[in-house]
Design a protein that fits this description.
Elements: E1 2-5, H1 7-15, H2 22-29, E2 34-38, H3 39-51, H4 60-69, E3 72-75, H5 79-87, H6 95-107, E4 110-112, E5 125-126
Parallel strand pairs: 1-2, 1-4, 2-3, 4-5
Helix pairs in contact: 5-6
Length: 127
């Protein structure tokens, strides 16, 4: 299965946070699944780290290696993803999450998130 993990899911996974269920962890770690993180999520993390609103144990300089080691692929966004954003209702106002939703729709990916606002969009979810 193909999964796109939300920003907070990556952060929780990296920190071993108890809010991630064993089911979600097993899906992320399963060799049968393809796991993606949006480039928008990495951008969001960099902005929040730069503003001092987020501290991460893995330095940003090592994040690429961490993702590679965990077999998490970086999903770049495209013009069709940006176009899809213009078609989405404004149930969710966070621009990073709107791009993640758009990418999931356009690439037929199941989103792993704890964000209940994703339920308002036509995306497959694992929560």
């Amino acid at each position: 299965m193909n999964f796109l993990i939300d920003t907070h899911v990556l952060l929780w996974y990296m920190q071993g946070d108890h809010r991630l269920s064993k089911v979600i962890i097993s899906q992320i770690e399963s060799d049968r699944n393809n796991i993606f993180i949006s480039k928008a999520s990495l951008w969001e993390i960099a902005i929040k780290v730069g503003l001092g609103k987020l501290k991460v144990e893995t330095p940003l300089t090592e994040l690429g290696s961490y993702l590679s080691d965990k077999k998490i692929s970086i999903l770049d966004f495209s013009f069709p993803d940006l176009q899809k954003i213009t078609e989405l209702e404004f149930y969710h106002r966070d621009p990073f999450d709107r791009l993640i939703i758009s990418q999931a729709i356009n690439n037929n990916l199941t989103v792993i998130t704890d964000d209940k606002k994703f339920n308002f969009y036509p995306v497959q979810l694992l929560q």
